[in-house]
Automatic annotation (TrEMBL):
S-adenosyl-L-methionine-dependent protein-arginine N-methyltransferase that methylates the delta-nitrogen atom of arginine residues to form N5-methylarginine (type IV) in target proteins. Monomethylates ribosomal protein L12. Residues 58-87, 152-173 are annotated as: Disordered. Residues 202-430 form the RMT2 domain. Belongs to the class I-like SAM-binding methyltransferase superfamily. RMT2 methyltransferase family. Residues 156-173 have a biased composition (Acidic residues). One of its GO terms (molecular function) is protein arginine N5-methyltransferase activity. One of its GO terms (biological process) is methylation. It comes from the Eukaryota. This is Arginine N-methyltransferase 2. Residues 59-70 have a biased composition (Basic and acidic residues). InterPro entries: Ankyrin_rpt-contain_sf, Arginine_N-MeTrfase_2, RMT2/GAMT_Mtase, RMT2_dom, SAM-dependent_MTases_sf.
Length: 430
């Protein structure tokens, strides 16, 4: 609509609700929310009411831009607020709860690329930050469950499919699934950069990745769009994971996703009794043959997608003492499918070095381009693992400053910006 009067009215409404949120005026905010969305955004700052409610607590001596990274001070945890700010924070908490009750989106981005949680984290407002994390967990769990229901609906008649196609043609909202498993409306894809696939990064989608040409460097593996598939800085993390999964020699190991061969090389140092590797990318498989992986003692290389290989291993009754999972260009729901449907059939409940059960691990990089997203997905994966019958222990491992060490030079997009990595080790409950 091009009516200037309408546009002015809309802008005034947006400014009114932003002001009420910033002032933590619950009464005014409740009245405004009757006719205005909790997700309106200021055209200049990109602030939503959630952003405004949190940013209102920003002190005058705020950190400079050089101290921030993707909306937070890299690696620093929120500290307890000063006692004199207690009333302000309580008012902000009530404001945020009201906004979330009215459908506020936890990961909308402002003009600076910050989510509301990023602002709370940067300002050290722990209680407000945890509200954002909890809201993110609720939203992502709900959306993932809705996705499951949608999959059930997809099994309907051809008439249903035709109706869906007609709706899309008529301009209906299309639902898209991001790389890390969050579900987004097409109109909200601008916010997906925080949680998953960036616009134009088609090679990080599974089908495109498998048909792309990979570039092997001495310390990194890149796809044809220069996205990092695997990099040498991950070695410390994988070595520690291997130590926890395979503490002694002579165990049976399965690794899904060979990549540069970092963790498989470490597994080989443990002289495994059996060492199975599942790898789908033709370029990686070619390099594996050149490096002689198919001839290494105990090694069995399965060429193809794990979704196609694993059912055969389960059918044969193959069991393992340790399983590691690290694939590229797959959504979180692929990882969830793997540990809910595959690991339980492959991990020996009486295996391991002590006979008390095998162990499962994975590269925990979901949402690692900002702290709030990482914390949300860590809670989600722990809950999903528990529901699948696994107890998970996380070990915090410091990550060096990858920027200062030049690790991202020549890489299209950083997939890790955080100071600490939470390394998961999973065992069967009981």
């Amino acid at each position: 609509m091009d009516d200037p009067a309408f546009e002015l009215e809309t802008d005034l409404s947006t400014q009114s609700i932003l002001l009420a949120a910033a002032n933590h005026d619950i009464t005014a905010l409740r009245d405004l929310l009757r006719n205005t969305s909790a997700n309106v955004q200021d055209l200049e700052t990109g602030f939503t009411p959630l952003h405004a409610a949190i940013a209102a607590l920003e002190p005058d001596d705020k950190p400079s831009g050089d101290e921030k990274l993707n909306g937070h001070t890299n690696g620093e945890s929120p500290e307890e607020p000063a006692a004199e700010r207690k009333e302000e924070i309580e008012a902000a908490v009530k404001t945020m709860k009201l906004l979330f009750q009215n459908g506020a989106i936890w990961n909308d981005l402002d003009a600076q690329g910050e989510t509301p949680g990023c602002i709370a984290y940067r300002l050290g407002l722990r209680e407000l930050y945890e509200l954002c994390v909890d809201a993110g967990v609720r939203a992502e769990l709900l959306l993932s469950r809705m996705d499951e229901y949608q999959l059930l609906g997809d099994a309907g008649s051809d008439d249903d499919e035709d109706e869906d196609e007609e709706e899309e043609e008529e301009g209906e909202e299309v639902v898209v699934v991001g790389e890390t498993g969050d579900i987004m409306a097409e109109e909200d894809m601008a916010t997906s950069e925080a949680m998953g696939l960036a616009p134009g990064d088609e090679s990080t989608q599974s089908a495109n990745y498998l048909s792309s040409t990979l570039k092997f460097d001495r310390d990194r593996l890149l796809d044809e769009s220069d996205n990092g598939v695997m990099m040498a800085w991950e070695t410390t993390l994988m070595r520690r994971s291997a130590e926890l999964l395979v503490p002694t020699e002579g165990l049976r190991v399965l690794n899904v996703g060979h990549g540069m061969g970092i963790i498989d090389g470490i597994f080989q140092e443990k002289k495994p009794k059996a060492h199975h590797i599942i790898e789908a990318h033709p370029d990686v498989l070619k390099r594996m043959k050149e490096q002689g992986w198919h001839e290494k003692p105990g090694v069995v290389v399965h060429e193809g997608r794990w979704q196609d290989i694993v059912p055969g291993l389960v059918e044969k009754g193959d069991l393992f003492d340790a399983i590691y999972f690290d694939t590229f260009a797959e959504e979180y729901k692929a990882l969830r499918e793997f540990f809910t449907e595959s690991v339980i059939g492959l991990l020996d409940p009486a295996g391991g070095s002590d006979g008390e059960g095998g162990k499962f691990g994975f590269f925990n990089g979901m949402g690692a381009d900002r702290q709030v997203a990482y914390d949300v997905y860590n809670k989600i994966v722990e809950m999903d693992l528990f529901e699948a019958g696994f107890d998970t222990e996380f070990e915090t491992i410091p990550v060096p400053d990858l920027d200062s060490e030049g690790e991202w030079e020549g890489v299209r997009r950083k997939y890790w910006v955080l100071k600490d990595y939470k390394l998961p080790t999973c065992t069967f409950i009981g």
